[in-house]
Amino acid sequence: MNLRQYKGAVFGEHEPSELTKSGVKQYASYYHWARVGEYLRGEWPEPMPSIQRWTRAGAAEWLRSCSDYVVVDTEYLYPGPKRVYMLGLYSPDVGVIQWEGDPHADHTGGEVAEWYREVISRHKVVCQNIKADLPAMRETFGIKYGEYKGGLEDTVTMHHCLLSEMPHDLNYLENLYGRRGKMKHLQGRDEQLYNAGDVVTTGDVYEILREELAKDPRAEGIYRDELIPLLPIILDMEERGIPVNKPFIEEALNDTTRRMEWAQRVGQAYAGWPINLDSSSQLATLLYKHEDVYARARKGGAKGLRIKRTETGGLSVSDDVVAALRQAFLPIDNAADQSDYNVIEERITDGAHPLLEARSFFVAARQNRSSYLLPLLRDPETGLPLTDKQRKGGDYSDCLVADRIHADFGIDKQATGRWSTKNPPLAQLPPHLRDLLANDRGWPEYHYDWDQIELRIFAALANDALYLEWFEKGYDPHTLAACDCLGIEYPPVPTKKEIFGGEANAEWRVSHQVEDDDWPPRKFAKTFVYRLMYRGQAERAGDVPGAKQLGLDSKGLVAAAERWLNAHPSVRKLWADLEERIRSEGVVYTPFGRARRLLSPDVAAKIREGCNFPIQGTVSSIMNRTIINTCRET
User: Fold this and answer.
1) Cα dihedral 22/23/29/34 (nearest 10)
2) In Å, how far from its chain's centre is CA 485?
3) Distance between CA atoms of 165 and 46, rounded to whole angstroms?
C-alpha cells in the first residue's frame, strides 16, 4: 500500500536495536506500546476540551467554575523581551480560555492583568517551565513573582525529581503522558490550537506526575522544599543580572588576540612552517601522518587510548581528542590553571607535545572570546547583539558594551542535580577573565569555598571512622591518604601546618623527602582517591598527576587502591550496599531525598553512576538550601 494513501493512525516507535543501547528509549517504549492498546479500545486520544476566547464576562464565569488549579501557557516574541501575544489558561472543569493581543501594547494596568491577578490569588498555577512563562507575564502584564499566592507547580521540575536522566521538554512529556493527539506541529500554522494543545497537555502531564510524586515522598520533598522555592530566586537572579566591568572588555579582547597569536607562534615554531592552528586538516596531517602521535601515545603507556574518526574516515582532532592526547603525553594537573602561559610552557618543558598544547591554548582563547566577550558587544547603531557576520569581522572598536550579564541558570539539566549555566557559562569562567564581572553599588561581594565537600560527604555516607576523625581534628586528609596508598607511616602530628613546617615532623619530612604541600605522593593521592571514590578503575589511573613520577604502573596502582581500601573498610561496605540497591531497585537517594532512577542498560555504567550520585546530589542540595536560607534571612 502507498503510505500516502493510508488514512489510519500511525504510531512511531524506536528501532529494536536502539532499545538495547538506551534506557531512556526503553522507558519511553513502554508508554508507546501501552498507547496502542488504549487506541484499539477507543480510550485514546481523548477529545480536546472546549476553547473560548477571552471576554470580560466569559472570563469571570470561567474563574467562578474552575477547579483548584489552573494551567498557564504563554506564546511570546523571541528573541528580545518576552512580550506575550497569546495567553492560554486551562482548568479540567471548564476547559481552555485564551487571550490574544498586541505584544507591543501596555497591558500592565488592563482588565486582563487584573483578572489574571484574581486567578493567581485564588488558585495554584501550573506551568511547563516556570522560567519561561512567569518572566513573560511579568514583562507584559507586570505580574510580580510574589503575587502567585495560590502557589506554583512546574512539570519540568516535577519530572526532573522523578526521572532526572530523561528529557523534560513538553514534546517529550507529551509522548509519554499526553492524552490528546499531537499538536506541536501546529506552531506557526494554527497558533490558537497550538497554544490550547500545549496548555491542555501540560494539565494532563501534571495529573500523572502529581500522582507519581505522591508515591515517592522523598522525591516530593526535594521538589517542594528545595526546587520550587529556588525557582523564584533564580528568576530574580537572571532578571537582575550582573554588572559588566566595561573598561575591562577592550583589554580582554586584546588579551585574547595575544593569546591566540602566542599559540600560533608556538605551533609554527614546532612545525617549522606557518601551520594554522584553526585548521583541523593541517593539524591532523602533521599529528597523524607525519608523526603518528596516536602510536606514540599508546607506546608511552596510554594503551587504552581510542581516537574517534571523522565522517570521512580520518582521525579526529576534536577538542576531546586533543585533551585525551595531551593527557597521554603528560598527565594534566586539573588544579593548575590551563589558561596560564607559564603552566603551558612548563608542561612543554616537562615533555608535553608542543603542538597539542598550542592547539588547546588557542582553542580555549577563541572559545573564551566567543562565549564571554563577543556576546556582550552591541551594534553601535541598533544597540542589538552582534550578528554572526559582525562577530567574524574582527574589528570591535566601535561596538557598544552591554550593561549587564543575564545568564541562564538551569536546575533540571543534569541528572546529578548540578546547575547548568549558559549565556554565558559562568561556572567555567577562567581566572584571567573574572574581572569581567563588577558589583552593583552598595552590594557586597563574597566568596565561598566548599572545602573538600565531596570527600567529607563521602566519609559521612560511608561512616568512615578514619576520615571522620581526620576532619574533626583538622588533619590533612590528602597527606594521610597518600600514606595509606603507598604504605608510608603517618606523620607524628598530621595537621597541614605541622606536616610541612612543624618541628615534630622534621624527621618524618627528611625521611620521605617532603618539602611542601606539592609533595608528589600527596599530589598523587589527592586525585587518585577522588578517582576511586567515583568508581574509576585503579589500573587505568596512570594519567593521575604523580603516578609516573612515583613509578606506579597498572599493578602498582591496583596495589595502592587495595591499601587505601584496606585502611577504609567502610568504603567497601558502602559500595556493596549501593550496588545491591541499584540492582534490586534501580534507584538511589541522597540523604536529603533526591532520587536518581538509573536507566542505563550498561550495568557497569549504572553502578558507577549510582555510587556517584549520593555524593553529587548531596552537594547540589547543600548549595540549593544555602541559597534559599540566605535569601530568606536577607
Assistant:
1) 170
2) 33
3) 29
- Please say whether the beta carbons of 410 and 421 come within 8 A: yes
DSSP state of 181: -
- Specify the 3-state DSSP secondary structure of 84: strand
Mean pLDDT (whole number) for 349-365: 95
pTM of the model as a whole = 0.91
pLDDT at 23: 87
Could you give the C-alpha distances from 61 to 95, 115, 468, in angstroms and in order? Answer: 12, 11, 63
Dihedral (CA of 614, 617, 619, 622) sign: negative
Spatial neighbors of 236 by CB under 8 A, at least 6 apart, are 145
Q: Which of 624, 606, 620, 627 is nearest to 22 (CA)?
A: 606
Q: Which helix (H) or strand (E) segment is 563 a member of?
A: helix 554-567
pLDDT given for residue 352 in this prediction = 93
Question: For the chain, how long is the longest CA-to-CA vector?
Answer: 90
**Cα distance between residue 230 and residue 632, in whole Å:** 11
Beta-carbon count within 10 A of 236 CB: 11
As given in the structure block, the three cell numbers for residue 399 are 561596538
Query: What HEC string does 260-314 produce?
Result: HHHHHHHHHHHHCCCCCCCCHHHHHHHHHHHCCHHHHHHHCCCCCCCCCECCCCC
Q: What is the DSSP letter of 551?
A: T
- The burial class, CB within 10 Å (0-12 / 13-18 / 19+), for 462 is buried
* C-alpha span between 529 and 525 (Å, rounded): 6
Is 72 in a helix, a strand, or coil?
A: strand
- Secondary structure string (H, E, C) spanning 439-501: CCCCCCCCCCCCCCHHHHHHHHHHCCHHHHHHHHHCECHHHHHHHHHHCCCCCCCCEHHHHCC
Q: How many Å is the Cα radius of gyration of the chain?
A: 29
How far is Cα 481 from Cα 604, in angstroms, rounded to an integer? 26
- Per the DSSP assignment, residues forming a β-bridge with 309 are 315
Nearest to 416 by CA among 602, 613, 231, 600: 613
167-198: per-residue pLDDT in tens? 999 999 999 999 998 888 899 899 999 999 99
Cell of 491: 606523620
CB 225 within 8 A of CB 629: no
C-alpha distances in angstroms, 20 versus 25, 78, 599, 601, 602?
A: 9, 39, 11, 7, 9
Residue-level pLDDT at 182:
85
Torsion sign (Cα): 513, 519, 522, 523: negative
Number of helical H runs and strand E runs in the chain: 26, 14
Are 591 and 614 in contact by the 8 Å Cβ rule? The answer is: yes
**One-letter identity of residue 98:** Q
Percent share of the chain, pLDDT over 70: 96
**CA 512 to CA 291: how far, in whole Å?**
40
Question: Other C-beta atoms within 10 Å of 200: how many?
Answer: 25
CA angle 207, 226, 580 (to 5 degrees): 80
Query: CB of 409 within 8 A of CB of 426?
Result: no
pLDDT of residue 85: 97
Q: What gap in Å lies between CA 127 and CA 156, rounded to an integer? A: 8
Report which DSSP code applies to 244: B
Taking a C-beta distance cutoff of 8 angstroms, is the pair 569, 466 a contact?
A: no
Q: Answer yes or no: are the C-beta atoms of 256 and 373 closer than 8 Å.
A: yes
- Cα–Cα distance, 52 to 271 (Å, whole number): 71
C-alpha to C-alpha distance for 220 and 475, rounded to whole angstroms: 38
At residue 520, what are phi and psi to the nearest 5 degrees? -50, -45
